[in-house]
Amino acid sequence: LERYGHHLGLAFQAVDDLLGIWGDPGATGKQTWSDLRQRKKSLPVVAALAAGGPASERLGEILAADAKASDFANFSEEEFAARAALIEEAGGREWTADEARRQHTIAIEALDAVDMPERVRDRFAALADFVVVRKR
């Protein structure tokens, strides 16, 4: 169960990082691109920066300039949208979604090693499914 919880926690965080950039504000209760507004170097950002290529390089240049900006709060919606688009173009969104699914699979497989009634296993699996498909 410890292995299940560990990998489910990693899946949860990956999904949370996706929602922090692309989540629906009506569902999450957070502002659009909230993690970008807070300058978080979340998993999609790190994956995009590590991917290499033109979008990754441009994102790195923009984020380096952002670090020097004194009034980040006054950035336009278009500037945040451009950052999100570069993260997606560089593959950060897809990589993070794939990682959430991978961690989910490992968590579910960990349940096979635990002797428990099927109805209990089903509840653990349902919790894991909820973590990966959640919208908030």
Provide an overview of this structure.
This protein has helices spanning 2-22, 25-28, 34-37, 43-51, 54-68, 77-89, 92-111, 118-133. The longest helix has 21 residues, at 2-22. The mean pLDDT is 93. α1 (2-22) runs antiparallel to α7 (92-111), α1 packs parallel to α8 (118-133) and α4 (43-51) packs across α6 (77-89). It is built from 8 helices and no strands. The protein is an all-alpha fold. Helices cover 75% and strands 0% of the residues.
Topology:
Layout: H1 2-22, H2 25-28, H3 34-37, H4 43-51, H5 54-68, H6 77-89, H7 92-111, H8 118-133
Helix pairs in contact: 1-7, 1-8, 4-5, 4-6, 4-7, 5-6, 7-8
Which runs of at least 5 residues are low in confidence (pLDDT < 50)? none
Q: What percentage of residues falls in helices of 4 or more residues?
A: over 70%
Mean pLDDT across residues: 93
* Termini Cα gap: 25 Å
Structural class: mainly alpha
* Tally of helical segments: 8
Shape: elongated
Give the total of beta strands.
0
The ordered string of helix (H) and strand (E) elements is HHHHHHHH
Radius of gyration: 17 Å
Beta content: under 5%
Largest sheet: none
